Amino acid sequence: MRKTLIFLILLVSLFESVRAQKGDKSISAGPLISFPLEKHTIPGYKTGVGIEVTGQYYLASKSSLLGQIGLTSFGTRQVLNSYEKNLKLMSLKGGYRYDIGSSGFFINGLVGTDIDTEDGFTSAAFTLGAGKRFPVKDVYFIDAGIDYIGGDTEKRVNIKVAFSILQRPKKG
Questions:
Q1: Which residue ranges in the chain fall short of pLDDT 70?
Q2: Which of 6, 30, 89, 107 could hold 162 in an S-S bridge, CB 3.0 to 4.6 Å?
Q3: Topology (CATH) of 2-166
């Protein structure tokens, strides 16, 4: 609860965008809450939690390439006394991000795969997302956003927060 309050205070108090230059790199990581969209399937999954790490390489001040790895875990809803296993997905994706003006808002798209860590089943997945970047000091940031994940995988909506853990301006 205390961490949530601190995060909300940071979100409200920060309004300017972190400006990146071509060749800059950053890595961010943070928690996510995942809401399955197919609730009437068997097995039905409960709301999941996870973590996501994103690497970003800036092509220009407003566009960048993304590499993303995530791990999300879902519990199973009990249906007619049947036993179904929980679902743990590892996501590996690459994509593109575009920053909308200097407002800090962004959109992104990624494609890749979701891997069921229990049985190794792999499925194609895509992500469409949007969010807002909040600068912290000069080089650190917090990204808050929402993603839709679809494809041959469990369709879901993620609400997430990512904290920068490394940002390097290009040398030269």
A1: 1-21, 39-43, 77-84, 168-172
A2: 30
A3: Porin (2.40.160)
97 to 5, 11, 128, 148: CA distances (angstroms): 28, 21, 10, 15
Q: pTM for this one? A: 0.79
Question: Which residue in 17, 19, 1 sits closest to 9, CA to CA?
Answer: 1
HEC profile for 75-103?
CEECCCCCCCCCEEEEEEEEEEEEEECCC
Residue 61 CA, chain-centre distance (Å), reads: 21
Give residue limits of the domains in the chain: 2-166
Tell me phi and psi for residue 37, to 5 degrees: -95, -20
pLDDT in tens, 65-112: 999 999 999 987 665 555 567 889 999 999 999 999 888 999 999 999
Helix (H) or strand (E) holding 145: strand 140-151
